[in-house]
Amino acid sequence: xxxxxxxxxxxxxxxxxxxxxxxxxxxxxxxxxxxxxxxxxxxxxxxxxxxxxxxxxxxxxxxxxxxxxxxxxxxxxxxxxxxxxxxxxxxxxxxxxxxxxxxxxxxxxxxxxxxxxxxxxxxxxxxxxxxxxxxxxxxxxxxxxxxxxxxxxxxxxxxxxxxxxxxxxxxxxxxxxxxxxxxxxxxxxxxxxxxxxxxxxxxxxxxxxxxxxxxxxxxxxxxxxxxxxxxxxxxxxxxxxxxxxxxxxxxxxxxxxxxxxxxxxxxxxxxxxxxxxxxxxxxxxxxxxxxxxxxxxxxxxxxxxxxxxxxxxxxxxxxxxxxxxxxxxxxxxxxxxxxxxxxxxxxxxxxxxxxxxxxxxxxxxxxxxxxxxxxxxxxxxxxxxxxxxxxxxxxxxxxxxxxxxxxxxxxxxxxxxxxxxxxxxxxxxxxxxxxxxxxx
Amino acid sequence: xxxxxxxxxxxxxxxxxxxxxxxxxxxxxxxxxxxxxxxxxxxxxxxxxxxxxxxxxxxxxxxxxxxxxxxxxxxxxxxxxxxxxxxxxxxxxxxxxxxxxxxxxxxxxxxxxxxxxxxxxxxxxxxxxxxxxxxxxxxxxxxxxxxxxxxxxxxxxxxxxxxxxxxxxxxxxxxxxxxxxxxxxxxxxxxxxxxxxxxxxxxxxxxxxxxxxxxxxxxxxxxxxxxxxxxxxxxxxxxxxxxxxxxxxxxxxxxxxxxxxxxxxxxxxxxxxxxxxxxxxxxxxxxxxxxxxxxxxxxxxxxxxxxxxxxxxxxxx
Lengths: 440, 317
Known about the structure:
- The structure holds two protein chains of two kinds.
- Chain A contains twelve helices and 18 strands.
- Chain A is α/β, with parallel strands linked by helices.
- The two termini of chain A are 28 Å apart.
- Chain B has a five-stranded parallel β-sheet with strand order 7-6-5-8-9.
- The radius of gyration of chain B is 19 Å and the shape is globular.
- The interface between A and B is medium-sized, with 21 and 24 residues.
């Protein structure tokens, strides 16, 4: 993927609505790609491609930086029947995502240099989009012993996480944050107290009470977040709360940011667009972690995203197959696929008038790229030509069978949505192109 | 036949999975049928042939003595061919999923499937995969509709009505499907429901199910017409939800002193099996006001009514 474009000629994307959150640009124009990078951009390229360039007419649709999805679970290695890097990257390309960050929750866990290397080799040979690795912060994600953070970072790990588990031992977390600071390594943490959330199948409330399901409220998340923020204050380590879901967490992170702590946070597309009532009568495709919350909490995270308190949107793509989802709700696995639908789902917030388009795209591309120290996330001259072209208004009906992921556990199955990716480019190469009739 | 016996009872999807969707007219019609069955059960010739040729399978993923035998007897008295699936020795132990089991059973073409499972929603899930009528005989902490129906019948027979009565349900509400089904059904029938338990055994926002919530027996039992005790599982008595069985009995066990707070003619109920000395004193269980044995008797009658009503709604009936 790092090799220069195979295109002999420059490519010109003309007749576009250019949106670049990095510069605040939202204007008609065009963009020129040479040798895998953005060679020129602006209004002067709207109609006129330079002589000798291959022309792609964008039909007035949006040209934006490709999405950077910093929370993608795959099944490689260990559960390739659910998802491989290849199938995940095909789904990503179809969703306008040009970089996926794969999570360490694999079998074996990505907690060694050799495994980071393995992911990178497999990705180089099989993936259509850029694949980066989030390495484990503790061995085997046990929350006990720190991994080789320095060596893993040198091998290419771009951040460190404990995957779907929270590090319950505060002393371990303190040491990780403290040690990671010496390497300027980013710590990404799932915030959920393991004891309070043990066996919980959904959010605590009237619905869980009616359904007779074991449940946990936001307290498990807020407690863990507040503990972490104390430790960040103590150590100065760079910290990112992976997916916040409720009003109280937003208040806590706001306070920490105001105090100048080096903290950021993310939210999953599921918590921005769904709530606990979607579970209905035990629909396991809506079983995710942290659990879907109340509508009030959803509105609080949407508002926090609009205000910029929430930095990043992730798909939290988590492929699960029939044998882990076609079970009674409490026994079914958590997780929903999402890398292919994250942009479309996020556009709901734009169409509803809840969040401006440029802010959505910032949280999906510019912000995660900056946070992870990646080059992309912008249409600036010289940036890699990682680009999503999409029609924000095109209506379609999500059909799980048509999605590219190997697993089909989407909570958006049969949803009427608006907004479709037309073309995705990585380093100037078209890795996905929408064909009407095929897949709509 | 009375009018209520010919009244066609509506079951959503053709199954009995929950009490939430029942309405008062249907419930009373079912209870009338059950009354009729109870009368026949007191005769020496109990057999009927309403379900002759029908196949009933009892599929119990969770051990049960009384519910399973009650359903078995109910089916047999109506002339059905009844089979008990011994799940502990079946392929479920070999890793077969619930859905696979459902498909396999469906291929045997039963007409009525009685299912108990330890996971909430499991019976509803299974019902989506089969062509026969499914009866939920208890799914996790969710619902146990025939228990609530037999409780309602027991109350109606003893008190002449359910509407307007104050029913106190005491004990482990949080983990109880019996409680959830009873709260729903008693509300449908117009009773006033109270829940009494330590806070650790009351689920979130329980009041919104349609009940008044109390943490003291003294307040909760005052003036009650019916006292319904729930079983407390042993594993919850060792510090996880309550400190000890001894402490639980002291504050929440039904003895004559606490019972004295309820109306003098208050009914004493328990879905069984009882932990004597934990949630109920032996003397209270055996008191003249105790209808615990009537509950068992009404259990067979109610299940006969339910089996009959569901079978009469089958497409080929």
